[in-house]
Design brief:
GO terms for molecular function: glyoxylate reductase (NADPH) activity; hydroxypyruvate reductase [NAD(P)H] activity; NAD binding. With 233 residues, the protein is an alpha/beta fold. It contains 8 helices and 7 strands. It has a 7-stranded mixed beta sheet. The longest helix has 19 residues.
Amino acid sequence: MDLEYVRSRQIAVSITSGVLTNDVADLAMGLLLAGSRQLCQGDRFVREGRWLNGGCRWQLRSAASVSAFWGWATSARPLPAAPAVLICRCSIPTVSRLPDSIISGAPTCIPWPMKATFLVIAASGGEANRGIIDASVFNVMPKRAWLINIARGSLVDEKALIQALQDGVIAGAALDVFEDEPRVPAELIALDNVVLQPHVASATHETRQKMSDVVFANVAAYFSGKPLPNAIH
């Protein structure tokens, strides 16, 4: 949205700020665990009868890993203390810690993303950030690393991601968003080390009800001549 234009036309704009935070954090942790503990692979392993021929591959212990979280701090606040979380608030590769009161046991800042086992993307989209997570990022990540994207598909260079996954540059990816939704590249679908979700981070009954409540509250305020509770200034 062109905010300068709507301001020039004195058009009121409001958003459902803060409503999605807990659900997005829920899915971030769900995707992280689905990747690290190979939950989807394990499900297929049992369903396809492969367990009869031996055990499955060993997994990653998330509590012993470091996660780099690139995006807004509010999206990370509901995350538990384990795994340790680093917050990249602005541009790659700037790293800053969450306050100890929010995340306990977080390590001293380390080069990002070179030490992160899990890279969680929760940043804003837009042309300025298009394709910012590309081969140059994947090539410095540990081979055991997973990419978790709960933000916007445009942030990730999907071709570079597919190549990195196919070549074993990184261990896997867990994705809730894609570059050309709802069309997902066949190469991603074919990979066993990828967890796929249909952009459902905020899709809970509770959050969608809260979103509706916020919309109606803003509409009521507008027609009552009152300030919008969630206005963009």
